[in-house]
Specification:
The chain is of the alpha/beta class. It contains eight helices and nine strands. It has a single domain, classed as Rossmann fold (3-Layer(aba) Sandwich).
Length: about 280
């Protein structure tokens, strides 16, 4: 590889997702991209691009992360300029009906996966005086019906990212927190099939909850390539701290600043079935 090249590693680059779009956007800006996924066969959209290295990386496996680290270290001379923690998992279910083991697996990806990857690649980032980019979600700022566990995992990652930014600054490493709004991807196609338990208190509004489980609410969505281009522009432009990108992200940011909590709660349940449910 060229000695002056800059390198970025992105987790969760499967076709049809944000990671794939980010890989394309970084590639378009001249970086060498380490595109990762649990299975490299899921990154076909990136196959024809030059300066692209494909690695298998499972953020829940220390062995998988260590293997990827060794490859990156060898191929870059011990430097990584950008690490993008993008991998994520989620599901839709009322908290009372949520499977705890499924929730733990989700936290293992959304929270501990970010910590594992960051800890492992930290030496390469410190050597390069690089940048960590953590892709969070507007769900980290709101208590959304039927997404309690997902919101909790993203809120935990957001707060840990804020701490990380303070701790990495003396080491010369910048941390960027991306609060992501609605993006047009295949995200909901990867959700487990939604089915309420027969004894659920929410059986009477099961069909309405299903709309959220399929992502059919009709909310505005930003195209993934547009989102990726904006985020990469922010990151390469030297932005620090928290940025808000994606459809409705700015609306959420402003609403959190000016709308009282009681009103936000009313808005959050509107149209979810909780506003009309009777027992």
């Amino acid at each position: 590889m060229e000695p002056q090249a800059k390198f970025v590693l992105i987790t969760g680059c499967s076709d049809g997702g944000i990671g794939s779009a980010l890989a394309q956007a970084f590639h378009n800006r001249g970086l060498h991209v380490f595109a990762t996924a649990r299975h490299t066969s899921k990154m076909q959209n990136l196959r024809d691009l030059a300066n692209m290295t494909f690695l298998e990386l499972d953020v829940t496996s220390t062995e998988s992360i260590s293997s990827a680290y060794k490859t990156v270290e060898n191929e870059t001379g011990g430097k990584l300029h950008y690490l993008v923690n993008n991998s994520g998992a989620g599901f839709v279910m009322p908290l009372l009906d949520s499977n705890i083991e499924m929730g733990q697996r989700m936290f293992d990806v959304n929270v501990w996966g970010v910590v594992r990857v960051t800890q492992t690649f930290a030496p390469l980032l410190v050597h390069a005086k690089g940048t960590i980019v953590n892709n969070i979600s507007t769900a980290s700022c709101l208590g959304l019906p039927y997404q309690g566990m997902y919101c909790g995992s993203k809120a935990a990652t957001r707060l840990m990212s804020e701490t990380l930014a303070l701790e990495m600054k003396p080491l010369g490493v910048r941390v960027v927190i991306v609060i992501t709004g609605n993006i047009r991807t295949q995200w909901f196609s990867n959700y487990p099939n939604f089915e309420l338990p027969e004894e659920s208190y929410f059986s009477s509004i099961s069909e309405r909850i299903g709309v959220f489980a399929r992502g059919d609410q009709g909310h505005p969505q930003m195209e993934a390539n547009i989102y990726a281009r904006k985020v990469v522009g922010d990151v390469l432009g030297g932005t620090e701290g928290t940025i808000w990108r994606g459809a409705q992200s700015t609306i959420v940011k402003v609403a959190l600043a000016i709308i009282p909590t009681w009103l936000m709660n009313q808005l959050a349940v509107k149209g979810t079935g909780l506003d009309t449910m009777e027992i």
